[in-house]
Amino acid sequence: MAMELEPTNGNDANETRDTLFLLGGAAFIVFGAGLILSTPVVRKALGGAGIGNLIGQAMPDFEKYLKLRAM
Predict the structure, then answer these.
(1) CA-CA distance, 33 to 43, in Å (whole number)?
(2) Beta strands in 1-71 (DSSP E)
(3) What pTM does this model have?
(4) 10-14, 29-33, 34-38: the lowest-pLDDT one
(5) Residue among 23, 34, 54 at smallest CA distance from 62
(6) Residues in Cβ contact with 43 at an 8 Å cutoff, skipping those fewer than 6 apart
(7) Burial 6-32 (b: 16+ CB within 10 A, else e)
(8) Helical (H) or strand (E) element with 33
(9) pLDDT digits over 43-66, tens only?
(10) Distances, alpha carbon 62 to alpha carbons 9, 13, 20, 30, in Å
């Protein structure tokens, strides 16, 4: 039984590898953040500051960054 194979130029393999690296890096970031945030010292420090306050204070800086990047 003969099979016809499409000629590939190697781009599919490169895209697959890049996607794997991207998803693997994101998984490491999430895992690392979970490890850091699970320690009692960090939880105690962040508990006093309040996560909502930190996000609210960082939002204007993030918006400025996006405006600068769009230029």
Answers:
(1) 12
(2) none
(3) 0.47
(4) 10-14
(5) 54
(6) 37
(7) eeeeeeeeeeeeeeeeeeeeeeeeeee
(8) helix 11-37
(9) 777 666 565 666 667 777 777 878
(10) 40, 35, 28, 20
